[in-house]
Amino acid sequence: MVLDDAVAVTLLATAAFFVALSFGLLLRYRQVSQKISASSDLGHDLWIALEQRMKKQDERILDMMGRLDVVQSRVVAATVAPVPATLSPLPPLTPSPPPQEEEPSAVTELSPSVQHFRSQPESQTSQPPPVGVALDETQLAAIRLLSENPKNTRQLTDALGKSREHTARVMKELFERGLVSRNDSTKPFVYQLTEAGRRIIPPSS
Q1: DSSP H helical segments within the chain, as ranges?
Q2: How many CA atoms lie within 13 A of 103 on its CB side?
Q3: Tens digit of pLDDT per residue, the chain (205 long)?
Q4: Residue 74 DSSP class
Q5: CATH architecture under which domain 112-198 falls
Q6: 123 and 160 Cβ atoms separated by less than 8 Å
Q7: For the chain, what are the domain ranges?
């Protein structure tokens, strides 16, 4: 009998504890819910205030841009001055006529060697050299090489041991003096001695 009463008291005490615990948790939940709701309302109010301020700022920016456009149009109108009516327009530019090439005189007589090479379109010759004009060692060496057989620019460069520019300059001088003829139909050019060039072939050492 005493045991039954003790069990009943224990059960009542346990039930009372759980009821008190449940009531405490419910009260805490309501407090937390109120805080969350209050913070949400505060955040909503802040967001609304921020949106209103941004709208006002946009209106101010648009107003400033409109004023800036007006100022720019006034500055452009002030800087562009009208052209005075007293100024006459510039005359149009007329292209100058191209220089006319001088036609060769009809009475000019060509030497037999020049007539011979002009009859052959692939080769070119020049006038015979003036009497008494001395040649340097490289020019004499080029004439000696061409006395064997015609050679192109590359072969002459290798044989003379000079640069390509130096060899081209030497052969140009010999061509202008009429000592060699030049075949322009091949690349590189092929040179051979003329009659004037053969008359001054240096003796072989």
Answers
A1: 2-79, 112-118, 137-148, 153-160, 164-176, 195-198
A2: 3
A3: 666 778 788 888 898 888 888 888 988 888 888 888 777 788 888 889 888 888 888 888 988 888 888 888 888 777 765 545 455 555 555 555 555 544 443 333 433 433 433 434 444 444 444 444 578 899 989 999 998 899 998 999 999 998 999 999 999 999 999 999 998 888 888 999 999 888 887 665 5
A4: H
A5: Orthogonal Bundle (1.10)
A6: no
A7: 112-198
